[in-house]
Amino acid sequence: MRQGFFCFVAGGGIFLILCSFFFTLFAFGEELRMIREMGISTIVVCCLFLASLSAANTISKEIEKGTIVMLLSKPVDKHSVILGKFFGILAAVSSVFIVMGTLLTVLLCVRESLDLHIGFLTSFAMAGYPTVFQLVFSFLPVAIMCAVATAGSVYLNLISNLCCCMVIYIVGNLASFFHDLFPSVTNWSLWYLSLVYAFIPDLEDIGAIGMGAKVEFMSYSYMASLLMIYAVLYIAFVITLAIEFFEKKECR
Q1: N or C: which end of the chain has fewer CB within 10 A?
Q2: A cellular component term (GO) from this record (predicted)?
Q3: Is-contact 91 50, C-beta < 8 A?
Q4: What is the reported pLDDT for 144?
C-alpha cells in the first residue's frame, strides 16, 4: 500500500466516481441507476487492476531476487507463504474497495436525500442498501482474479501472468457465449472444450448479480447465495492448486 500506483489508482477511481454525477445529467429518471452502475464499474476495474498487478508479481519476484530462499530457510511453510501473499494483497485491495465503495454509497444517499427532501436513513434504505449489496458481489470477481494471479505467479513472470489473467477474465465474462457455441458434447474435442469451460470462473453471472440484473428463473437471494458459495469454493480450489504447485517447485 506504500507503493505510488496504489494511491494513483485509488485517486483516479475516486475522481471518476465524482465525475459520474455529471455524466448522467441528461439521463431522465435513470440517474440513480446509471451513477450506481458507473461507480461500481469504476471500483471493480480499479481494484481488478490493483489485485492482478500486485498478485501477479508476488511469488515470481521473490523467486527472481532469491529472497524466497531466505524466507523458506526460516520455520515458514510454503503454504503459509501462499496464504500470506493472497490474504495480504486481498486485504490491501479490500481497503481501497471499501474506501471507494463507502464514498459512492454516501454520495448516492446524500444526493437522494437532497433531491427527494428525505432523511439520510430513508435515503440509505432506498439507494444505499442496494448499493452495498451490489458492491459485496462486485468484489467477488476481484477476489477470484487475485487468487488466479497469485497461483500463476508461482511459475509465470509478471507479463505472462497478466496476459493469462486477462484471457481468463475475458473468457469468464463471456462464459455463456462460449458455452452456446458448443451446446452438445459429441466428440473428444468438444469434451475437452467443456472441461476447459468448467475450470474457467463464471464471472458473467457474478457480475450480473453485482450490477443488480433481474433473475427470472429463480429468486434473486437464492441465486446470490449460490454465486457467493461458488466464488468461495473456486477461490479455495485455486489457492489449493497454488499451494500444491509451490510445494513441488524447487526454489534456488
Answers
A1: C
A2: plasma membrane
A3: no
A4: 92
10 Å Cβ neighbour count for 30?
11
Q: What is the pLDDT of residues 22-43, one digit of tens each?
A: 776 555 666 777 888 888 889 9
Angstrom distance (rounded) from CA 86 to CA 61: 14
d(CA 159, CA 142): 19
Q: In whole angstroms, how far apart are CA 27 and each of 21, 38, 42, 108?
A: 11, 13, 19, 15
Q: Write down the residue that cell numbers 489473467 correspond to.
A: 165
Q: Is 24 helix (H, G, I), strand (E, B) or coil?
A: coil
* Residue 229 domain boundaries: 4-248
| Spatial CA neighbour of 13 closest among 52, 48, 55 | 48
**Distance of alpha carbon 201 from alpha carbon 211, whole angstroms:** 17
Give how far Cα 32 sits from Cα of 20, 22, 106, 157, 249, Å: 10, 12, 13, 42, 50
Q: Would you say 111 and 39 are in contact if contact means Cβ atoms under 8 Å apart?
A: no
Output DSSP code: residue 126.
I
Overall domain count for the chain: 1
Quote the DSSP letter at residue 28.
Answer: T
Looking up cell 515458514, which residue turns up?
76
- Distance separating alpha carbons of residues 12 and 87, to the nearest angstrom: 24
